[in-house]
Write a structure and sequence with these properties.
Length: 124
């Protein structure tokens, strides 16, 4: 059974950096393309970043492009999201997600494995 567990959330100062990790448990990690989403208050869950199964390509939401980086370590079965210059309105629960496939998707319905989420609060 595949399981995802996020870590690294907490309090971040506005303008500071965030680093989230997602640990994949189970088999077949290399078959999964992975992504990060976030849910801000009562809004819809929104796409942040995705990475291809082999780590050779990435996709970012326009709102984070240029200050976010997603990367993966297939040997350690981990995915990391690094974001700089965090803003208070990016306070959200951040989720790690995966699906078996080679492309990168920015729609949450395409992902069938999800972590529990980790709360990130950006203070002004």
């Amino acid at each position: 059974q595949v399981r995802l567990e996020e870590s690294g959330g907490g309090l971040v100062q506005a303008g500071g950096s965030l680093r989230l990790s997602c640990k994949f448990s189970g088999s077949g990690f290399k078959s999964y393309s992975m992504a990060w989403f976030r849910r801000i208050l009562t809004k819809e869950r929104e796409f942040v970043a995705a990475i291809r199964w082999d780590g050779e390509d990435t996709l970012y939401a326009r709102s984070v492009e240029g200050r976010a980086a997603i990367f993966r370590n297939n040997a350690k079965q981990m995915v990391v999201l690094q974001m700089d210059n965090m803003k208070p309105d990016e306070t959200a629960v951040y989720y790690c997600a995966g699906y078996i496939g080679r492309g990168m998707r920015d729609v949450d319905e395409d992902y069938d494995v999800w972590g529990q989420g980790t709360q990130v609060t950006v203070s002004s």
